[in-house]
Amino acid sequence: MDTELFDPGQFQAELALKSSPIAAFKKAIAQADAVLQARFAGGRDIHKLIHDRAWFTDQILTQAWNRLACAADPGIALLAVGGYGRGELHPHSDIDLLILLRDDNVDAYRDSIEQFLMLLWDIGLEVGQSVRSVDDCAREARADVTVITNLMESRTLAGDESLRQAMMQTISSEHMWSDAEFFRAKRAEQQARHAKFNDTEYNLEPNVKSSPGGLRDIQTIGWVALRHFGTNDLRKLVDQGFLNEPEYNILASGRAFLWKVRFALHSLAGRAEDRLLFDHQRTLAQLLGYQDSDAKLAVERFMQKYYRVVMSLSELNDLLMQHFEEILLRDAEAADIRPLNARFQIRNHYIEVTHPQVFKRTPFAMLEIFLLMAQNPEIRGVRADSIRLLRDHRHLIDDAFRSDIRNTSLFMELLRCHEGIHRNLRRMNRYGILGRYLPEFGKIVGQMQHDLFHIYTVDAHTLNLIKHLRKLGRPDYQEKYPLAWRIFCRLPKPDLLYVAGLYHDIAKGRGGDHSELGKVDAEAFCQRHQLPAWDSHLVGWLVENHLLMSTTAQRKDISDPDVIHDFAVKMGNQVRLDYLYVLTIADINATNPTLWNSWRASLLRQLYTETKRALRRGLENPPDREEQIRQTQQAALDILVRAGVDEDDAEALWSELGEDYFLRHTASDVAWHTEAITQHPNRNGPLVMLRETAQREFEGATQIFIYTPEQNDLFAVTAAAMDQLNLNIQDARIITSTSRFSLDTYIVLDADGGSIGDNPERIRQI
Question: Burial code of 101-119, b = ≥16 C-beta within 10 A, e = fewer?
């Protein structure tokens, strides 16, 4: 009896003093909340805290139930179900209750039940409740795996325990949901839940409960174990031989960490909040005792710890669900065994070792297994016992292992496979092999990125980039990325692109320029894997310059011949341009899917095309600016004469404009501007025009042209006005004439990322 948390004698005295019981219940709840928060702040063991809160809630509910006229009736009982049934409660967890009836006679108890629930509502307890007879429970449980899951974890709070026992008998596997059926349903439930989070643990605002590797994954293991073994006690699963001691420690410590995070998150948010939102992460890091260091902020250290915990739990969840599948679904199947080599065989579509000493005697097999899966796409995964052996022997991956030519050859062979590269790199990361084979990669596992663009951790983004590179070579992506697809298909060595992709962000979180530091690591990788000098130089160059194409396209005026010439000089040759273009496309898509749009696509395509033309012309032959200006003016003049514009009027206007105007606009735009200005009734007043862009580099956007007398802060005021109109400025060309008029062109997208289109009302509004 924890009288500090709840003192029955004091509670009864409070009840006696009050005319209404509500005040006494509320006071007891407030006192308990304060005690539990103080214990949390004082470092109380999280297991004790979670169970303390559940115990206190038991006392309050029992006190409320005992006030009812039907409290001693053998035909009704109050049960805790779900997480509360397990005896686990966080500050704002659901309090799930079942009012269980022996017979289907709810009307006999209706007044008492309503009185009970009204009291719970009045004292501030948010409960989820259902009222069912034993037969109702059987009927509902048979139809819904969620219902039976909740009922399996029930416990009696008040009333006759025999009611619960009767209910448990009706929902046993003898009557419904065999072990195998229950497992299939829970596995499908987990797969659907993971899909909502893109099957990754590494969203930057993860859900502590529902994301892959979260508390729900641990609970799923417990539910299946409870159905099969009759217990969800992790310690007892070790005794059953289902878990080993190290796995138990990972599950127990991981759950304790997530419980602590969830307890703090609920307390901080003041509600049942399970999302680790950016707004909470920094405060949570402080609450949980993390501090800034020279290398990393406290929030980065906290979140890296979080990601590494959930990754370990995901890895273990894979193993245990696979283990259940073998026990419950496949043990009864006839074994279809196909040998692969002396070390591995395929059993019913899953790869396994031929004997338990494989990794100990031939450590290179820890890489070979992933290569074999890539070479044999029909393999669905690794059998649980072999996953266990991988985990048990990965400590053998040391410097000698990394330098062994057998291992370096196996890794490069994996990167040269036709299929399965991304899938098996991801498996290597999940099973803790990739970060050991490439220690520099191990350092970025769980490394978060504080910026406006990335939505994944560095390692998740990196593997996502490999996935996008692989997609660029698939025929079904030809329509979406036509230029990138053609370039990728003609690359002489795609594996060099994968190496550059693995290393492009490898040095993030170290301080300094991650591109320069990453180049050093990439070249060391190439040397260790005995790549030729030309290949090594290309990989190092790609890592060092992986941001160059994106920043040039989006931050510089790529209609300027000098910009194109300077970029072409940095490329040096067509091969580098091809590799960098494909890497850039994949990098943008892997950073955040919402970043890719027709505007970015057209910018990069324009930069690639113009640079390719410059390389063919020869870097020793820079573009002739005067010739380009003359050609633009002549083409514009041809258009204007056909439209009936006086040639002298056009040339008079042009004489007030500098060279940049004609270098930065097409002949079509020059003619459009000139005709409008020369025919504008008020040459001293403002002129605003809109049309869809005709230039390929701004495909899918709208062009807004403004002609107005120059004035202070014109650009700032214009940009602010466009922001109020929900227009996103993608490019701006600001030209001032010698007569102090401003000729400004803005390339804009509407709020949905598209052009304004033929929308007269929207055009009039702008």
Answer: bbeeeeeebeebbeebbeb
Question: 3-12, 192-201, 398-407 — which is least confidently predicted?
Answer: 192-201
SS3 for 209-267 is CCCCCCHHHHHHHHHHHHHHHCCCCHHHHHHCCCCCHHHHHHHHHHHHHHHHHHHHHHH
For residue 47, give the nearest of 82, 7, 5, 89 by alpha carbon: 89
Give the pLDDT of residue 201. Answer: 73
Give the pLDDT score at 58. 96
Q: pLDDT tens for residues 588-619?
A: 988 877 667 777 888 899 899 999 988 988 87
Q: Which residues contact 496 (CB under 8 A, 6 or more apart)?
A: 531, 535, 538, 539, 542, 579
- Of 333, 528, 321, nearest to 438 (Cα)? 528
- Contacts for 563 with CB less than 8 Å, ≥ 6 apart: 552, 556, 557
Residue 457 contacts residue 441 (beta carbons within 8 Å): no
For residues 689 and 709, give the distance between their C-alpha atoms in angstroms, rounded to a whole number.
16
The sign of the dihedral angle between the CA atoms of 586, 590, 593, 595 is negative
For tokens 């510089």, the residue is 556
CA distances (Å), origin 85, targets 19, 36, 78, 97 = 33, 20, 11, 8
What's the alpha-carbon Rg for the chain, to the nearest Å? 34
Decide: 642 and 592 in contact? Cβ < 8 Å.
Answer: no
CA distance 304 to 15: 49
Nearest alpha carbon to residue 673 among 661, 682, 684: 661
Burial 703-734 (b: 16+ CB within 10 A, else e): bbbbbbeeeeebeeebeeebeeeebbebbbbe
The closest of 527, 222, 283 to 402, measured between CA atoms, is 527
Specify the residue for token string 């065989």: 345
CA distances from 144 to 149, 182, 229 (A): 9, 10, 21
Nearest to 525 by CA among 501, 546, 493, 492: 501
Strand pairing report for 687-692 and 728-736: unpaired
Instruction: Compute the distance between CA of residue 197 and CA of residue 214 in angstroms, rounded to an integer.
Output: 11
**Token pair of 520 as six digits:** 């050093």
Buried b / exposed e along 291-329 (16+ C-beta atoms within 10 A): eeeeebbbbbbbbbbbbbbbbbbbbbbbbbbbbbbbbbe
DSSP notation for 137-180: HHHHHHH-HHHHHHHHT-EEEEE-HHHHHHHHHHTSTTTS--HH
Listed residue (691, 669, 687) closest to 679, CA to CA: 687
- The size of the chain, in residues, is 766
Residue 652's pLDDT band, with cuts at 50, 70 and 90, is confident
| Long-range residue pairs from 210-213, CB within 8 A, at least 24 positions apart, any chain | 210/274, 211/310, 212/310, 212/314, 212/317, 213/309, 213/310, 213/311, 213/312, 213/313, 213/314, 213/317
> Helix (H) and strand (E) counts for the chain?
37, 12
CA distance 341 to 362: 13
Is 50 within 8 Å of 63 (Cβ atoms)? no
* Alpha-carbon gap, residue 90 to 121, rounded angstroms: 19
How far, in Å, CA of 634 to CA of 368, rounded?
65
Three-state SS at 372: helix
> Is the pLDDT assigned to residue 216 strictly greater than 80?
yes
